[in-house]
Design brief:
This protein is α/β, with parallel strands linked by helices. It is built from 17 helices and 24 strands. It has a seven-stranded mixed beta sheet with strand order 5-4-1-6-10-7-11, with helices on both faces. It has a seven-stranded parallel beta sheet with strand order 14-13-12-15-16-17-18, sandwiched between helices. Strand 2 and strand 3 form a beta hairpin. Helix 8 runs parallel beside helix 9. The longest helix is centred in the first third of the chain and has 16 residues. The model has no long low-confidence stretch (mean pLDDT 93).
């Protein structure tokens, strides 16, 4: 079975000058179709038909044959039928061979996958059809126009997914039996279509198509390895979701341990694609199959062996909040919650791969668009928020404190925002309107409640940066000793930090609250210190680090 692939590429493109030889993501556009044809073992010969010397040079560079097309076959109005016939006739004569099948491969479909082409040829060989045409299924509600009116091309209005198939030719490939190659036709009587994906269907006709294709070709496969559970908290999950939402256009996959149901449920809720694993070995097996370009590892401290295995499996490894021995082997360490001069991080700096401090904080979208309210002289609303799981149960501690504070401040409202991993019923925490205490679980837009707060209680994680972005004076109680290493939450930045939450007495909390409520000037200065920080650019810096080319 002799199969010929013909790639028609003239030099006189007007929509995009020199289109076929321009570099698309680093290589000439025509090279994509040449490489597809050369990589297919079913294709016997490949020939480029052109009128252009530059295209001939690229054909030679790629070690494929070429046919010099007559200028009359390179005019704007000439269809492909006589061009393909001319190429087939000349190459058969030159090689003294008769082909059984001729495939037209357009150079303007750089996203066509070689695997798709092979599958289409195999299907054609096993079928009794005369011709295969590449198509994309693109059902839409459409209309036609006659002389007097517009009329619908459908019987009833349905959602796109419910509409009948509507196949559009993509031009990516056209497979036909040799006997149907004529000067004015390439199509047999018995025709079928071969469906390709929407990406592969893009045919470059204008600059918009070019930009779209180039962006798709630059798309990375990115794995987020992250867990969320009662002890660890949910901040890592929220952080990785924030990054993922800003990597639109790239292929994202979350990998998390199946036993940590709090984190699994949050990822499911986000509708991001995910993979469940039991242990690191299953993770490594997944990476071998999925062929990721980048991994973002947000599971705290790593060891040397773990990161070295990742580096063998993935080109670029980013690790988050990592103070382990493995971090120095990563391509980048993003420790936004820690300061650069932390002693056990000093040796990272020699590698030039450590990015630490507030410049790399990633605010969620809602905080990027929300703005602080004007300063309130009186404290009317207090926000209490200790994360998605609150491992030290500081929520319960503050709940009892607020019940006592109500006696002295009956007009102040306390809003407790708890996460999906916190069990209010088990802790006997519920709304008490008579005490102006309100319990809100798993709130979608936390920023709206933060913005209205005049004072807040929180732990020492990423929430402090969100509060700072909205200028909310805050009292901080750390969940654990590791959180205390997050040094942003200090008075110089507008926070009154009481230390490790479980060791702070209720009396200390109440006296601190009383002082701030009754000292307007201190709250104003705290707010002013917070708003001096520009935290909205951090997400862009981190995305640049993740996507950085070596």
């Amino acid at each position: 079975m002799n199969i010929l692939a013909v790639i028609p590429a003239r030099g006189g493109s007007k929509g995009i000058p020199r289109k076929n030889v321009r570099l698309m993501n680093g290589i000439p556009l025509i090279s994509y179709s040449i490489n597809n044809a050369k990589s297919c073992n079913l294709i016997t010969d490949v020939v480029v038909t052109t009128d252009d010397e530059e295209i001939i040079g690229i054909a030679k560079l790629n070690h494929v044959q070429y046919i010099e097309r007559d200028s009359t076959l390179a005019e704007d109005k000439i269809t492909l039928d006589p061009v393909i016939y001319d190429a087939v006739y000349k190459i058969e004569k030159k090689k003294n061979i008769c082909y059984d099948i001729v495939i037209t491969l357009q150079p303007t479909s750089p996203l066509l996958k070689s695997k798709t082409l092979v599958t289409a040829i195999e299907s054609f060989l096993s079928d009794d059809k005369d011709t295969y045409i590449s198509v994309v299924n693109n059902p839409h509600l459409s209309w036609s126009k006659n002389e007097n009116e517009f009329t619908p091309n459908y019987k009833e209005r349905l959602n796109r997914q419910q509409l009948p198939p509507h196949y559009l030719e993509t031009g990516a490939f056209f497979i036909t039996k040799r006997e149907f190659i004529k000067p004015n036709s390439r199509m047999g009587k018995n025709v079928s279509v071969f469906e390709v994906s929407e990406d592969e269907a893009i045919d470059i006709d204008n600059y918009r198509d070019w930009i779209l294709c180039e962006n798709i070709l630059k798309r990375k496969r990115i794995v987020f390895r992250v867990d969320g559970h009662k002890k660890l908290g949910m901040g890592h999950i929220y952080h990785c979701l924030t990054l993922a939402y800003h990597l639109t256009g790239h292929e994202i996959m979350f990998v998390t341990k199946q036993q940590y149901t709090e984190g699994v449920n949050k990822i499911k809720e986000s509708h991001m694609p995910y993979m469940l694993i039991k242990n690191d070995q299953e993770f490594f097996q997944f990476l071998r199959k999925w062929k990721a370009d980048i991994i973002v590892n947000d599971c705290l401290d790593t060891d040397e062996g773990y990161i070295k295995i990742l580096k063998k499996l993935v080109k670029r490894v980013i690790t988050i909040e990592d103070m382990g021995s493995g971090a120095r082997y990563a391509d980048a360490i993003i420790n936004a919650l820690y300061e650069k001069d932390l002693k056990n991080l000093k040796y990272y700096c020699q590698q030039g791969n450590l990015y630490s401090g507030e410049n790399y904080i990633c605010l969620r979208d809602e905080f990027l668009i929300n703005e602080p309210k004007e300063f309130s002289k009186e404290v009317k609303k207090v926000l209490v928020m200790f994360g998605g799981t609150d491992p030290s149960n500081l929520t319960k501690k503050l709940y009892h404190v607020s019940l006592e504070l109500h006696n002295n401040y009956p007009e102040i409202e306390f809003y407790f925002i708890t996460g999906s991993g916190y069990d209010c019923d088990r802790n006997n925490i519920y709304t008490r309107k008579d005490k102006n205490i309100f319990i809100l679980n798993n709130v979608k837009r936390v920023s709206d409640y933060m913005r209205e707060a005049d004072l807040a209680f929180t732990s020492q994680g990423r929430t402090v940066y969100e509060l700072a972005s909205l200028g909310v004076p805050s009292i901080v109680l750390a969940q654990n000793e590791r959180e205390q290493l997050h040094t942003f939450a200090q008075m110089k930045n507008g926070f009154l930090n009481l230390g490790l939450g479980e060791k702070i007495s209720n009396e200390t909390i109440k006296s601190t609250f009383k002082w701030l409520v009754e000292t307007e000037q201190i709250r104003y200065e705290m707010r002013d210190l917070m708003l001096k920080h520009n935290l909205k650019k951090g997400i862009n810096r981190v995305i640049d680090i993740i996507l950085k080319e070596d």
